[in-house]
Amino acid sequence: MTIKTDALIIGAGPSGLFQIFELGLLGIKPDIIDTLPTVGGQCTELYPDKPIYDIPGIPMCTGQSLVDDLMEQAEPFNAGFHLGEEVLEVTPQETGGFRVVTSADKVFDAKTIFIAGGVGSFQPRKLRQPEAESLEDECLFYRVKDPSRFAGKHVVILGGGDSALDWAMELAPKAESLTLIHRRDEFRGVEASLATVEDLVTKGQAEIIRSATLSKLGIESGQLVSVDIKGADDEVRTLPADALLIFFGLSPKLGPIAEWGLEISRKTIAVDTEKFETTIPGIFAIGDINNYPGKKKLILSGFHEAALAAFAAKAIIEPGKKVNLQYTTTRPIMHKRLGVEDEE
Ligand code: FAD
Known about the structure:
The chain has 344 residues and is an alpha/beta fold. The protein has helices at 14-25, 41-46, 63-74, 132-135, 162-171, 191-202, 299-317, 332-338; strands at 2-10, 31-34, 51-52, 61-62, 80-83, 87-92, 98-102, 107-115, 121-124, 140-141, 154-158, 177-181, 207-209, 212-220, 223-231, 236-240, 243-246, 250-253, 264-265, 268-270, 283-285, 290-291. The strands form six sheets. Strands 1, 2, 5, 6, 7, 8 and 21 form a seven-stranded mixed sheet that branches. A five-stranded parallel sheet has the order 10-17-11-12-13. Flavin-adenine dinucleotide (FAD) is lined by residues 10-16, 33-36, 41-43, 46-47, 52, 54, 86-87, 116-122, 255-257, 287-288, 297-300, 302.
């Protein structure tokens, strides 16, 4: 099934989320896609609890609270959210508009596109073992889609952050055995989660091995059967393993965006500064992903770019119609779109 949309936003970081709002004010309901299962881009992925001091009118907020507020601001416009899928293809159509295909095989027919892809889509950092690729999604996983498949299995988790701890907590009671291995002594994740996993260790439902790394995958008939773990003392221990879960964090990759025929230099897309349009008419690029003379990779730059790109897109979506600037303070049409009452 093809989803028809006036505006398709690629990337749900702060720029993409504010793009929903700016389009909404002009009466356009967009769809938005992100590779990650959650919105917020760098703000939520890299610094959710760190304070930000340079958002206009907000003396201080955190990465996560900014994203929460952007979501609240965008809410009246009922955007279609498509999370956990990467945009793979963008192809101009002869009849106008674009055909967009995602990693979930979803197809969109979009009149305009807003690339808000930041520094690229966040991908899990992979295990550097020659056999790792052939085991992926069979017995070696970078994401958990179906926790039930680990019931009754010997599960080994590598990593020291929140994902590693969260899945250790969730899977330990169901697994035959669960071992959490971290290359350092100190865990990066939330202390309360670590305390819960340590409690599971006390109950005999889990084991934690600190300051150790994986040295070898034990494979029989194409299936993982064990892992060799090397400790700080260079001693190697073999553990039974049916499933290996790897949480080494995420790193951004420009990925498929580089293949859409846009003018790209230094992993960014060239745009004009009137409309923030790329070299392909109808495709706009905002936020960290774009470049133009004087560009500064700041959240506030993406907000400004989103406003101007929205006005330019409106002229494509409704050709021939005059696009007026209207204040949210005083215009009833704005209040209607925002879902707020007019004052008597
Ligand atoms: P991003 O936040 O990078 O979001 C892009 C999204 O696009 C990602 O979620 C990605 O998964 C998605 N995506 C990419 N390609 C695809 C694809 N093909 N398909 C689907 N989805 C895709 N800025 C400030 O102004 N003030 C600060 O104080 C500040 N502090 C910072 C601190 C740190 C530690 C870091 C790392 C950055 C900081 N920044 C700060 C910079 C700020 O975070 C970025 O400017 C901002 O996040 C850019 O927003 P964006 O929406 O353009 O891109």
